[in-house]
Structure formats: structure tokens, C-alpha cells
Design brief:
Elements: E1 16-20, H1 23-26, H2 33-39, H3 60-69, E2 74-78, H4 81-84, H5 93-108, E3 112-118, H6 125-129, H7 137-149, E4 158-163, H8 165-174, H9 185-209, E5 215-226, H10 232-255, E6 257-262, E7 265-271, E8 281-294, E9 301-304, H11 322-331, E10 339-343, H12 354-370, E11 375-381, E12 400-402, E13 409-411, H13 414-424
Parallel strand pairs: 1-2, 1-11, 2-3, 3-4, 4-5, 5-8, 8-10, 10-11
Antiparallel strand pairs: 6-7, 8-9, 12-13
Length: about 425
Amino acid sequence: MGEGSAMSDAFPQDFTFGVATSAYQVEGGIENDWSDWEAAGKLKDPHARCGRAVDHWNRFDADVELIERLGATAYRLSLEWARVEPEPGKFDDAALRGYRARLETLTRRGIRPVVTLHHFTHPRWFPRDTPWHQPASLASWARYVKEAAQLFAGLDVVVCTLNEPNVFLMGGYLAGLMPPGFKDPGLTWAACQNLCRAHVLAREAVKAVNPSAPVGLAQHLMVFAAARAWNPIDQALSRLAEDNFNHAILEALTTGELKVRFPGFVATAVTLDGAARSMDYLGVNYYTRAHLKFLPGAPWAEYVFKDPNRRGLTDIGWERYPEGFAQVLKQLARYHLPIWVTENGLDDRRGDRRPEFLHQHWKALLEARAAGADVRAYLHWSLLDNFEWLEAWGPQFGLYRVDRATLERFETPACAYFRRVATTKQLTAP
Ligand code: FCB
């Protein structure tokens, strides 16, 4: 990473700095398939509940001021499908009006909304009646996105159809760790095809209302490495993960062909109507590197987070690996699309390690840009401490810390640093 050269230390003037959240993790008061999962005692702490979350639904205007104070000009938020369509085909007007008002507020304040339509959660009826592995899922989804797209009329928004479909498929269909809780490769493959089709349907619905809104999705990209560097099976596993977890869906939505690859050959492939060139930008969520190890029996593989550079794992136990950020961004150049970093961040419960993390990751981003990756935006995960899925309330990903008892928001030391870089577009040390 070149230190000090004028070019690599400056972001372009039109580069976007922003922050991200998702509805279920911050809004509060939502009942959906995830709240049922909690009630069934499936989180690490079986008593943990999302509940009122951090009450972002009621504190939206005050939270927008927090976004402004960061000098951020984009806010990635998601619509909660369960709020919008609590019963099949019955839309909640108050919820729709509430979301529209939020998008208008952001726009008025010069903050561009980046709106995710699906961020892991569903109304209760969806997995019960029309789960993703069934063709009927698409009719349900089409009805929802047609309604949701109306919210974008006349607004300058960026639309993110799906958040991390690869993580949802791994967690919800292959590993049984999140709802709907399957452990079934056949269902995973069926659901994967339908999620790609869902992206295409959502794109069509959005373009019908707002043809100029850029539409893409947010993919979770990891760096994979062999847990035992000398072991050829671990090496093959890393390639398999890289091809399928990182790239299969992105490739499908650029070429129209969804493929499962094994090292050296394509195991199965399907052509998806309308999927070719169906992204206007690539959304990237980057956090860490995983080391993969082959196991001689089910589940056949495990991943571990190592700390070979002795930087200290983040509090959730993930390796800090900014080099990997540059690596994945450079890899994406092959898709010839503008890149938006839709998430990047760390769990820092002490609250003082985020400035250094930002500095390292921004340096990596500039390095990737200099090498030809067309990165246009960086959205930090997260604006606020929030409910972290399986881990519930332990992790603290927020630029603003939230007191769990009072829900009061407090600046962390990273806020001033974020504002300085976001407003000057100059990468200086924290
Ligand atoms: C990503 C999710 C996001 C958040 C971060 C920490 O995988 O998209 O909701 O939980 O991880």
C-alpha cells in the first residue's frame, strides 16, 4: 500500500461516504420469522430478544441528525417486509407512509437513501406458505416489490434488492443456523435460483416506477485460505468457497448463468431469464478472511479465524484483514461495474479501535481504486450499535454507541475521524 503519494491519499470529490443499518436490527417492535426464531430459543443466548431494538423507528429524525453529523451523504436502510405486508396481500398503509416519509426526510437533508428490500427477514407467513425453495415464493415476492417500488417514485434512491443472499443461503438453507433453518443442499440450490430470479423481478418493479434508480445487491465477500496451508483438500475447499460463495450469484446476475463449480469443472448450471446484466452496480459487504479446514465426515468443513499478523481479532472473533479488502475489490474489476461498499465495520466493545480500522480499510480501498477497481462509495456498518442476529446484544458495531438501558446515543472516537475524511475526501491518519 503506497504511503504518502498524493493520488492514493485522496478520494474523488464525488465519492460517497455513508452509513448502513437494517430494519430488524434497529427499528424495534417487529414480529417476523426472526422473532419467532428467537422465541424458539435458537440464538446463542436462548433468552435474548431483539424486542424494541434501538427504537430507530420512533427516533428516526434524531438519528438522521447523527448521520448528518458524520458528514455522510448516503444512508443504507432496509424495508421490513413484515411491517409492510403483515398478512399475504394486505399492505399496511401506515407503514408504507412511514417509510416514504423517511426517504423524503433523508432526501431533503441531502442524504441519498440506499434502500434494501430484503435483509434476511420475512413476514411469518412467507416461510410457512411460500418459502424460497418453492416457485410460489416468486409470486409473493413480486407482490411485495411492486408495492415497495412505489415508495421510490420521483426520488433519487439507490436500490439494493437482496442483502447477502449467499449468507442467507448458507445460514438458512445449508447450515440451519438461521431461519428457515434447513440443512439441505437440494433446497439450497432451489432457493438460490429463486433468489436470483427475485433480484430480477425486483429490478423490473423498481425500473417500472423509477427507471433511473441504480439497482444492485449487496454480496458478502470473504477471503478464503487453507487452514493447513500444505493441505491440498483445504486448498481446494478455499477455491470452492471463493467460486461459489463469493462469485456464483454475481456471475449469474452478469452472465445469466448460475453455476456450481468444483475445482476444475462445473458441476451444475442453469440459465436464468433476465439475469444477464441485471445489476447497475455491485454492492460489497467485506469483513474478514476465513481459514477453511476439511473434516473427514459431515459437515465436511469448518472455518476458523486466525490472527497470523497479530493484530488482535475483533471482539466478535473475526480477523482484521484490510489487505483482503483490497484483494476482493480488485477481484470485482472483472465484472466491469461500479462498486459500492455497502458494509464494512468491526465489533469494538471498547470503542476506541474503529479509527485505526477505518484508516486501514480506507487505505486498502484507495489502493484497489488505484489498481482499477471502480469503487464509488463506502457505507460503514453501522450507524448505531444494534441487534446482531445470532449474537444478539453482545457486539457493538456502531459509530455511535447505544446505551442498552436508556437507548441514549453517544459518539465514539471514530465519529470525528469519519467526519474529517468524509468531508475533506483526504485520507489522513486518525
Ligand atoms: C452482515 C449483515 C449485517 C450485520 C453485519 C455485521 O453479514 O449483513 O446485517 O449483521 O454482518
